[in-house]
Amino acid sequence: MSDHLMTVYNRAPIEVERGEGVRLHARDGRVFLDCVAGIATNGLGHCHPALVAALKAQADKLWHVSNIFRIPGQEELADRLTGATFADVVFFGNSGSEAIECAIKTARRYHHVNGQSERIDVIGFAGSFHGRTYAAVNASGNAAYLDGFGPRLPGFVQLHVDDMAAIEKAIASPTTAALIVEPVQGEGGARALSGEWLANVRKRCTEAGVLLIYDEVQSGMGRTGKLFAHQWFDGCEPDIMAVAKALGGGFPVGACLASAEAAKGMVFGTHGSTFGGNPLAMAVAAKAFDLIADEALLAHVRAVGDRLSSGLRAMIERYPDIVEEVRGKGLLVGVKLKPNNREMMAAAREQGLLVAGGGENCIRLLPPLIISEDEADEALAKLDATFAAWNARVPEVA
Prior knowledge:
This protein is of the alpha/beta class.
């Protein structure tokens, strides 16, 4: 391992070489069933031929041009995104963190141009994760990500999703600008919020003139069986939404979507990006969007997600000392464990299965949306073998 990389990652002992569909191949010849998918990013699997073709075709034309010029691919993808959502306008960046930064700036600018510059507070939640930039970690509900980086930024309020009385009080505050929430928490343990919760928060925000921001970086782009997770429920649309990960099918791209009203403060000079919305990213993302937005694929995600969750819930009875709870929605599935989740991730790798970690001692299964029923059954079998092997090597404590 090179000594010249910052040691900010606790890397698994796998040297990745190539991927194909739901399989990830290591340099030493091992092949893994990939239920991490770049952390819900490779929505169409590794090296999907349609995405490869789109990238190669664009690579022969134009890679990068400044945003001082019109980029037709941006306009085409923005039309797709707004046509499928609440949004009127889109800003393109390179990542989920950048989409979140744009969302926060958009919300605060909205109140500034309305003559209410005192409204800067952004309500976030314990267990949330919105990215690693300075504003994003302040909006997130994990104090560990702020350790050693100086004082917290002003204007960020942390609450618990179960404390609705405190949420309603904070929304009504005259200094509140926005509330940001993941309709299905990813890093926080695959916790899916109910339609009732989202509808109540939507109603309260509207009444108070507070903007509602959804972070659908992980839960969006088909992951739950709808194009975006909040679309499972009527009357819950946000004012602003951050999207990334599977939007590019593995190619770096992020987007901040907003209503025209919410974005009215984002005028010339208020925001920008060098690489955001570059022609390569737009070509791949447009193709990925068309494939993921297809109702047949979304129906497939719902069916396979149900199959996977059902199989996992059956393990609660077979492995009561290991499995505590199954959470999530669609193909964003969390399994809350009793043993240490990091150790279980390593045990799963020994069975040829890659799973992600998560908050509240969960492991997450985030396979490509194209995973077949047979491959989902294979994932269940490998996880079953992982749990069986764990019980065989860890004696019960009386």
